[in-house]
UniProtKB/TrEMBL annotation:
GO biological process: UDP-glucuronate biosynthetic process
UniProt KW keywords: NAD, Oxidoreductase
EC number: 1.1.1.22
Pfam families associated with the record: UDPG_MGDP_dh, UDPG_MGDP_dh_C, UDPG_MGDP_dh_N
UniProt xrefs under SMART domains: UDPG_MGDP_dh_C
GO molecular function: UDP-glucose 6-dehydrogenase activity
Protein name stated in the entry: UDP-glucose 6-dehydrogenase
Reaction(s) catalysed (UniProt annotation): UDP-alpha-D-glucose + 2 NAD(+) + H2O = UDP-alpha-D-glucuronate + 2 NADH + 3 H(+)
Assigned protein family: Belongs to the UDP-glucose/GDP-mannose dehydrogenase family.
Family matches, as InterPro entries: 6-PGluconate_DH-like_C_sf, NAD(P)-bd_dom_sf, UDP-Glc/GDP-Man, UDP-Glc/GDP-Man_DH_C, UDP-Glc/GDP-Man_DH_C_sf, UDP-Glc/GDP-Man_DH_dimer, UDP-Glc/GDP-Man_DH_N, UDPglc_DH_euk
Active site: C272 (nucleophile)
Protein's UniProt keywords contain NAD: yes
Segments traversing the membrane: none
Amino acid sequence: MVKICCIGAGYVGGPTMAVIALKCPKIEVVVVDISVPRINAWNSDQLPIYEPGLEDVVKQCRGKNLFFSTDVEKHVSEADIVFVSVNTPTKTRGLGAGKAADLTYWESAARMIADVSKSDKIVVEKSTVPVKTAEAIEKILTHNSKGINFQILSNPEFLAEGTAIKDLFKPDRVLIGGRETPEGFKAVKALKDVYAHWVPEENILTTNLWSAELSKLAANAFLAQRISSVNAMSALCEATGADVSQVSYAVGTDSRIGPKFLNASVGFGGSCFQKDILNLVYICECNGLPEVAEYWKQVIKINDYQKNRFVNRVVASMFNTVANKKVAILGFAFKKDTGDTRETPAIDVCKGLLGDKAQLSIYDPQVTEDQIQRDLTMNKFDWDHPLHLQPMSPSTVKQVSVVWDAYKATKDAHAVCILTEWDEFKTLDFQRIYDNMQKPAFIFDGRNVINVDKLREIGFIVYSIGKPLDAWLKDMPAVA
Ligand code: NAD
Ligand code: UDX
């Protein structure tokens, strides 16, 4: 019987291992973490992350062949395959700060594996890491290995939050990179056999180590680039009277381009895109490729521009000031169906509005007040360090209140900003919201979820990303 141990019980480690346990009942899977509260939550009825379908999977296998533990060393030492799914945040200080990946957590996991191992192991990079990380990890493991054979594989994860279980059940592909040696091929085969329990063989791709590592960064860069491309077009749509949804549709029906991932938005968020592109930029710079680095940097620059543009639009439309005006924020998570707020565009938009002295009333169905306050007071990039390393009682922003109802958030507000595309926002009673707001009542839709015409009929002044502008907005100063 194979025993798998996964170091890191986060958004990737938890769901990925739960699905492996479900699909491979004969494999024992233990997910370990240094965070006691996180492991306690995995062992409780209140899982530490919100992900549709996850609870059901965990309940089916927890206590049978799926376990969550803080006894990291014991389970690593007993495992045949060790996945490492710890966070790899952007460095906040020192060489490469603000760009390079911080491999502190990865390195400490690798050193621990080397220390506690008594038998041969396959060590799998599940975290997203800079290309060539496997070489460094190999050095750490073999340097301390006491004659133990370690095979390093790269098996990057492509799940998206909010659809993680669906993505894991039916992945477009599973990618496994390994050394091109007899031992390397054997290790690749062993991991392939795990996925083959439910993933068709033709969807399991094998490559060399460096291709697998780089493919993950490349895939995220390509995806983010599509969003920045359509967001750049959204600005031009607003300036010309074109409608970005119509443009996206027309462009996406070209089978070479395809229709997915072309929704204009207030900007992309999430723990991966920005971090991984910055990391890619840093790697290009280190490899003497400044032009390539500059090319990818633009994806981030347009994303920052889009968030700024949204804030400027709100302020400019409301007579160039939001000071002391109540602005309702609907949605704080970085996308729907998750409670995750890492790099959510809502942080930058809220900070921008707070900078102009707005009073914010925030509602998100899955994000707690503590988390929102923490996000609005934390320094850039600090968020991606484990929860237990973050300040427990952050200072609070007094201009912010967090409520548990969209109607409460919007009552007496001057404006509403929709920052996450939660389905429930599509069916709100906007007539009721309008009746309870200050007039003129503004609505700024950063996710294109509302019916613009219907809301204009009610009486709202409506702004929706990349859509033809209201006469009111056209008369206001140009926004850059
Ligand atoms: P996360 O912060 O949710 O989880 C990481 C966990 O690792 C934390 O619980 C932390 O306590 C634990 N940890 C850190 N150091 C440890 C150590 N030495 N020993 C034991 N536990 C340790 O992060 P995540 O979102 O799951 O991401 C993990 C990796 O997967 C990152 O490299 C990320 O880029 C990548 N990734 C994330 C996603 C996503 O959607 N979140 C998708 C694909 C890939
Ligand atoms: C991403 C990748 O999709 C996934 O493959 C990788 O493993 C991790 O990073 P994730 O960040 O969880 O996944 O969500 P994703 O669906 O990619 O959305 C990222 C951001 O882009 C969100 O803020 C989302 O709202 C935004 N987005 C997405 C758009 O603005 N427009 C789109 O068309 C699609």
